[in-house]
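Action item from last week, closing it out:
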Amino acid sequence: MSKDKIIGINPVLEAMKAGRPVQRLLVADQRKQDRNVQAILRLARECGAEVRFASREALNREAPGTNHQGVIAIASAKQYATLDEILAAPAQQGKAPLLLVLDGVEDPRNLGAIIRTAGAAGVHGVIIPERRATGLTETVAKAAAGAMEHVPVVKVVNIVNTLEEFKKAGVWVAGAEAGGETVYWDADFVRPTALVLGGEARGVRRLVREHCDYLVSLPLLGMISSLNVSVAAGILLYEALRQRSR
């Protein structure tokens, strides 16, 4: 079975709360009395995970160059969800789907920040492409601060085909584009919606853009011509949350 290394107190705690199978837990000697670390140790005892106490230097060697906070877990690899699963979940909850499609986000810290925001805003699933984009790495998990355990992520071969599947399921596809005809606060995000954001360098690709039902824009009044993709995702998702909360 392939394994993931989960680094940091919050990511490890949320993974264990979510029932992620953990084989081994490494804890720095000087952190084992901390309240959150004690909660992790209780969960480790309940699930039968092996616990090892070690020096901070040993943890530094296990996860070099990271802020591990004295806690590292070796767990089973994170499983990707399926399109059927993320389309079925909103109906079971009695809610309109809110989905997020990322067309080529390559920076794992951006992906992690987006997943964290998606979890806070009630997104039912995040879709990423199989190629030319970052996957679910240790860096993504650390930046997501535990949210990766609760937000379904689907990896697809073809974004365009996925958008067409969403349309067949009654989901409206809104692409984020600097020249979009609709300012984002005038869009209708109450209805079933999939928001499409592009990668850091090229934005939403032309073919993907052409398969969106409509394009929304975020006003930019200064000299900067674009926003960081994780910032743009936060603005759009919280506008959707605002509209749905009315």
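Closing note: The chain has nine helices and eleven strands.
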